[in-house]
Amino acid sequence: MNFDGLDPGLGEYAPGLHGSLEPGLDSSLDPRLDPSLLQGVELDPDGLVVPESLHIVEGMYSELHSVAAEVGIPVTATYFDLQEELLWMGNHRGHASSFFGPTMGRYSSFQVHLTDDIRHIQSMDTGVLFLTKNNLKCITRGGWIMFDYPAEEGADMHSLLLTDNNTLLMGGLQNYVAELDLTTVQETQKFTVEVPGVAIMRQSNRFFFCGHTSGKVSLRDLRTLKMEHEFDAFSGSLSDFDVHGNLLAACGFSSRGLNGLSCDRFLMVYDLRMMRAITPLQVHVDPLFLRFIPTYTSRLAIISQTGQCQFCEPTGLASLADIFHVNTVGQLLMSFDVSSSKQALSFGDSGGCVHLWSSAPEVSFNSYSRETELALPCLVDSLPQMDWNHELMPLSLIPMPLTSAEPLLSDWATNLISPSPRRAPPVDPEILRTMKTVGFIGYAPNPRTRPRNQVPYKIKEIELDYDNYNQVPESPIGRDEEPHLYMVPKKYRKVTIKYSKLGLEDFDFKHYNRTLFAGLEPHIPNAYCNCMIQVLYFLEPIRCLVQNHLCQKEFCLACELGFLFHMLDLSRGDPCQASNFLRAFRTIPEASALGLILADSDEQTGKARLGRLIQSWNRFILAQLHQETLEQEGPQAYRGASSSGLGSAESVIGRLFGCEVENSSLCRCGKETVRSSMTLLFTMHYPEQSSLDKTIEEYDFADILKKSICLEQSTQAWCDNCEKYQPTVQTRNIRCLPDVLVINCEVNSSKEAEFWRAQTEYVFNSALKKEAAEPPKPKEPLPTEWCLEEELCSAEGLTFDTQAEDMRHVWIPLSLKMCISKTQGLEVSRLCVGELTESEEAEGASIYDLVVTVSHIQDPRTGGNLVAHIKVGETYHQRKEGVTHQQWYLFNDFLIEPIDKAESVQFDVNWKVPAVLYYVRRNYNAKYDLRIKNPIEPSVLLTEASLARKQRKSHATFIPLMMSEMPQASDLVGLDAEFVTLNQEEAELRSDGTKSTIKPSQMSVARITCVRGQGPNEGVPFIDDYISTQEQVVDYLTQYSGIKPGDLDAKISSKHLTTLKSTYLKLRFLIDTGVRFVGHGLQKDFRVINLMVPKDQVIDTVYLFHMPRKRMISLRFLAWYFLDLKIQSETHDSTEDARTALQLYRKYLELSHNGRQDEFRKVLKALYEKGRKLDWKVLDIDSSDGQGSPKRTAVFPSVMGL
User: Fold this and answer.
1) Could you tell me if 1042 and 978 are in contact, meaning their C-beta atoms sit under 8 angstroms apart?
2) Residue 978 assigned ligand-binding role
3) Residue 25, burial from CB neighbour count under 10 angstroms (0-12, 13-18, 19+)
4) Residue 1169: CB partners within 8 Å, gap ≥ 6?
5) pLDDT tens for residues 254-286?
6) Is the full-model pTM beyond 0.85?
């Protein structure tokens, strides 16, 4: 209780009011005093003295112990810890101390605040809360600060109330009660209360009780804190009150006219069942504190400021025999508390002393206290003496310092001591498929695959990618080794996004990617190809080709790749998503026929054979891009756009990857058939092993590659000469070398994996022998040192290491030399020196450098994933980092990390299996035009026909732009989008009741509206497109989107229906022009549309009218408050929302004109205050209750005539 605001004269009552227990007064002066109370107490002028030997009678309270915390500093708060046997005190100078047990041994002591007094103390499991005038601190019981929360400026806090484990209410002499979330240490909401505020708070299972300094006690709703009843207890001021069962008792001060306030000796008692006062209780002391102490009966303890204490029943009569006196030696009592066990009372006085009274000889503060952690005693002086001259004295008892640098036997590896809890089995896909969701709970029929309410103890590991091949080898003693012996490094593991209430806003992508290159998000269906998208992006001719390509096909992978690569160019380290590309990919019939479209269950359970899948995808995408760029139906133009600067785009894929091959078929009759064709990639073929001889011979990678390119095999084929199928020998030879050599490794079974492992062991053993014969060489610098490969780095600071270790698990070379000679045909060999000789150049030899390796990571715990090692060239570093440099990187979805070049060719097939290799001819970029000319022209904004058959001009909801209205840089455009749901969110309910999102709902854009932001037609839409979709819509979200079933169907829709690509091009043109988009919540809109917009081109009203650490405000409430507009009454309309956002931006410019930030901050505070009062609900505009918004602002005049 804070006494700063009390009248100083309150303690100066007439002596007759206090009885005769005041110091210096004879007991005979008060005939009502029971002499038995003074047994063992000697009165003298120096004050009361308690004898040392004190016998405690069971059931009667007697002084047990007193201790002086800080002499002369008033004790403003005492508190019994609810978790441990500790008594806390806080004094007038902001210092806190704790005392252990009934002996009051000092446990801890620390400073809470430099100047302000401690007004309230509250204990929790993890620490103790201390409240001062305008500050709340949580400190551990040992004195370590957990958090420090400052209250708002001008606050005068007095009381705390812990409503549950994580929620706290703070009240004081201001017109609000603040609710604080102790988990995030943020204010969640404010409840408005009447002036002069709340000084005391209590809680029952029905109400919150707030005591006011005006003498009133209000009863409030537990959830909303709205006042439901009020007791006007005292005419002066309230001192204290308490609640027990159906009774509320209060003490306070009454007004005596001109004489000020006087302590009222009548306690007000209220029956909470009938909500009325019962007979007041007259007591014989001047009450300052009171508490219910319900042991056998509901008795009250009433405490006066001078130290008198009286016990009485709230519904009976007070007896003089129930009075005892706390020996304060002339000091006034300032604080009082009762332990949870009701066995102990604590008093704090103005002299700095804390008094502990008890009703039992063996007192316990709590019924079930946990053990208090005490400081360990010093053991140095208590060690026994040792006589090392004794023959039987073991030398191990003599402590010795550790001087050896060798590892200890107890230093186990991290993977051996890390806890590995048993994971729960995945939910049966059949259950997920048939599940119906009601709220956040799913219901599904029992598939009867296992006994009811039973889960197998040992979870069977999922099938591995190899055919009948166990990834974990047998140990030498014949038993299976544990999977953790082949732990996948952390950076190679499957990365997942942890979703919170805010979605992706608070997920730290920078933790996984500290570069400026953009990663790709993995949660979209069929996102297994993310690594190959990155591979194509970092091939400069491919990037330029698809960004210059634009055609009229609705689903063109080359166009979608161009749009996606444009986003990757704009991103500065933020992840992108390939949702539009994958949407088009799912519509290609060839992709479905090749089995490249995965079902959700296959992705979740890890049953997809990702190694084979990505190699098939690699073959498909090259053929698809080649076909799409060869088409002549306007590959460079879209609705009349002129041709771009890339003159021979139709031949770029063929020039890059194409290799003319000659297929010869020789029948046994001697007839030879020769056919010519073009291939875009080659597949590795490994030599057949004899079933008798299990020893695998040593082969060089270059020899295997040559045999795979110039393939010779025997097969049955039709012979025109023999007129039947005959055994034929088919031979393949190449006539030219491609600029980019693409290789599918085809390591799909245990046989190929064993062959690859044997070759890596041969290479490693050879390197060991070579190293033993040569002196060690300095190891190359790490990739993070950003040192060019051609530079000669100084040996200073470099560690000398063997090169043999870098050759572990390595078989493929970083560079190859290839040429086609007229005599010997194709020749392939490892490149031993850096450059070609003149004679080799004359023969037409070329150097091929490895730039890409794609690997299948086999992790039984996650089902596996695909990663890519990519050698990023100088032009990309120049654009992103501003340095000229070449560097290898690991791309694992949104995880991007620089790696050493040796790591890019290391394949431990136990968990890292090679899938795809890309070799490029050195300096091949010089042959291609790498200029990018934006193919999107203003004509995309002109009038276009609707896909809907029933759409009429009379139904037009927008006016297209004229050529004279084409937007310029920095023009304003209001934008809003509406969405529908394609897949529902997948979430699980944790044991603590919280919801965890496993996979977010998949949204698709259904309507996009853009309105003019300036000019005579300001506010008139020029784009209002409904997006046709071929995918099944699960939920139209009509209440929030305004989209109804049938609006997106071309057969029955009356809306202006277009393709997503058409509308996407319009928005891309606006972005490239440099317009500024104005809207509400644009971040989500652009994310679902799959657009990357520079931050300086986005004006989001959700952030313009937002205060830090406060909630986001809806567009509906902002429109009502600032514009006096009532929008979104029944459903959302994107035209209305976009127009309203523009008006709000104009209002923002008006409020913050000429840098009036202080005034604008006051406007925001008033906005939040209004929102809290109305619970963020919009009132009726025409209501006359005084709760209306500011004056109505005019709607755009041009809109009224639309």
Assistant:
1) yes
2) yes
3) middle
4) none
5) 987 777 888 999 999 999 999 999 999 999 899
6) no
